[in-house]
Amino acid sequence: MPLRLYWHISCKKERWGERDRKNFGFFAPATKEWEVVMRGKGVRKTAMTTKARKPAKSARKAKHGCHDDPVLAFYQDDDELFRDDDDLVAGDEEELEEEEEDETLDNAIRKYLGEIGRYPLLSAEEEMELARRVAEGDIEAQQRLVESNLRLVVSIAKRYNTQGISLLDLVQEGNLGLIRAAQKFDPSRGFRFSTYATWWIRQAISRAVAEHTRTIHIPVHVVEMIYKIKRITRHLYQELGRDPEAEEIARVARLSKERVVELQGMAENPVSLDAPLTDDEPYHLADTLEDTRATAPAEAVTHRALRDQIASALELLTQRERQVIEMRYGLADGYCHTLEELSAHFKLTRERIRQIEVKALRTLRQPIQAHLLRDLA
Question: By C-alpha distance, which of 296, 269, 300, 274 is closest to 287?
Fold first, then answer.
């Protein structure tokens, strides 16, 4: 569910000054003193009220989904953000009550949004002047260029907010990319700084996601190839109206089919063996996997019956013959002893041990005993 931000404006002055418009213009029109109240867990409930005059042009654009400011774009899915008191009906209030538990902003994010709102946006001329000064080594110009675009980082970071990293951490990673963009920006190429910085911000955030969200670490360049495969897959799905084959993806990506299949496998999230099968059963995924180290029940029964048949046949031999056969063929401990080892054990010659073995085998081959071992052949 998208996070919803509600603005409670208390107007205590009749007119605005130009300085107030510049400093607080990215909020809804109000007076110098304003208060932001968020509906969320542990936050007091309040209806949206505003005593402002006719909304400014920027506010009217925002109401129709056209947000010049990235922070307002952060909440562009929420039409109720720009409603008046008259637009709130009983059904809306009930819906807000149901979503209250799931729509809470962290205090740090709230404070951060309020802080960056004080920095005004720059015009194209101001960006060019600041970029020229940054190229000359002016640290203050670089700081101003970065501060004026912090809201852009928030707008981009919220797209990655489902990747397992908190929004505040994503914003901090994006800020590093923004600083890098400010250092390398060249206004002579003819595009705005926000357009150039977007690439650096996305790269910094995507690298952080690749580094910190996967249980099994994957190199960054491989993660970027996975993203490329996903983009190509979505594009081909729109064109073909079906899931594309690996050969089709490989042709567009200029990779081998085997490499595409390998990357698609890497893109899948690992599944925990401790994950429950269902909410109602106490069984886990590991309970459904075969333990290759354990003996299957049917095999255990067969093995036990086999040992019983062999034991019955060996009962017809003398004690020494039975011991020689068991040790010679590994029936006792699973290890087949040599004639030399048996000779040392029984303190007999190797030839005598061989004679005892031959006599025991001849006894087991007699018709009276052979039927006990016939099924084992």
Answer: 274
